[in-house]
């Protein structure tokens, strides 16, 4: 695997503030994901957001319609995504800054989807809205009107894995499970729990400290065992937390592939192998 150019994947609150003050063309997107009985994040956005920021509902704009085999978070339809990008004012050369008030993985999923769709210059606001507020950045209650961007979606601009690809990679390369350790370990008494045999556990939350992406030195130490030049892929429960793995590795110049269906798609086929416990185990295809 040849290293990719080291890509800037985050922007600090002070950098964003300077860009907005200088009227640099930047499209700002605030991503919100509904969670159980928690208040709708759209209400927080309406009460005050970064000036000019468009609200992006996670469920409808960053996830396609699930079927019986796609898992919880399939990719959105290209045509639908292009329509939304244009409504946010995204053009071919736009700089897009995504952020959230929630788990950094929510913004990382937006970063990944836009990059997968061919938007070249996408940055995550390091620390999310909390960093903007800590800086003293202004908030606005005005809702930006629908724009008329000209973005053209090019699906597949970042690599993806099918279930078959993920299985092969677990045997021949580095497949990283970004779920929490307890989800990775599973329960031998419960079917549908555990991990893909051969996959290694590095929780997506380990990529951040205080909501900010860890330094290059820290990330290199975290992924040291997986930076030997072989292909790296990532999965999680439904294709969200694993985007933080792709983001972190991109900051090091490593282009990792995402298995969008992830565990929720993997287990739809009972013929696919699973294992429990804290060790990777051996994927059947790795046997001599």
UniProtKB/TrEMBL annotation:
Keywords on this record?
Repeat
Instruction: Fetch the SUPFAM superfamilies from UniProt.
Output: Rhodanese/Cell cycle control phosphatase (SSF52821)
Tell me if Repeat is a UniProt keyword of this record: yes
What reaction does this catalyse?
thiosulfate + hydrogen cyanide = thiocyanate + sulfite + 2 H(+)
Xref: InterPro entries? Rhodanese-like_dom, Rhodanese-like_dom_sf, Thiosulfate_sulfurtransferase, Thiosulphate_STrfase_CS
Q: What Gene3D superfamilies does UniProt report for this protein, alphabetically? A: Rhodanese-like domain
Give one Pfam family: Rhodanese
Which EC number(s) does the record attach to this protein?
2.8.1.1
Q: Where is the Rhodanese domain?
A: 36-141, 169-275
Would you tell me the protein name for this molecule?
Answer: thiosulfate sulfurtransferase
């Amino acid at each position: 695997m040849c290293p990719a150019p080291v890509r800037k994947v985050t922007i600090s609150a002070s950098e964003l503030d300077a860009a907005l003050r200088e009227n640099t063309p930047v499209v700002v997107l605030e991503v919100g994901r509904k969670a159980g009985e928690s208040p709708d994040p759209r209400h927080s956005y309406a009460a005050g957001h970064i000036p000019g920021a468009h609200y992006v509902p996670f469920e409808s704009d960053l996830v396609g319609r699930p079927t019986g085999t796609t898992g919880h978070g399939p990719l959105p339809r290209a045509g639908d995504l292009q329509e939304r990008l244009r409504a946010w004012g995204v053009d071919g050369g736009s700089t897009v800054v995504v952020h959230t008030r929630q788990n950094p993985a929510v913004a990382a999923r937006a970063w990944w989807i836009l990059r997968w769709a061919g938007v070249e210059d996408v940055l995550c606001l390091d620390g999310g809205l909390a960093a903007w507020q800590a800086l003293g950045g202004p908030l606005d209650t005005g809702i930006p009107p629908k724009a008329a961007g000209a973005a053209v979606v090019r699906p597949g601009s970042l690599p993806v894995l099918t279930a078959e690809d993920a299985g092969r990679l677990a045997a021949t390369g580095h497949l990283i499970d970004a779920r929490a350790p307890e989800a990775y370990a599973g329960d031998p008494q419960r079917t549908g729990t555990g991990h893909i045999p051969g996959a290694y556990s590095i929780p997506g939350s380990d990529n951040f400290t205080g909501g900010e992406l860890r330094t290059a030195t820290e990330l290199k130490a975290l992924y040291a065992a997986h930076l030997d030049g072989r292909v790296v892929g990532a999965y999680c429960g439904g294709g969200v937390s694993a985007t933080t793995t792709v983001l972190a590795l991109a900051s090091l110049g490593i282009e990792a592939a995402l298995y969008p269906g992830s565990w929720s798609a993997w287990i739809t086929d009972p013929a696919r192998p699973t294992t429990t416990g804290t060790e990777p185990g051996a994927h059947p295809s790795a046997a001599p």
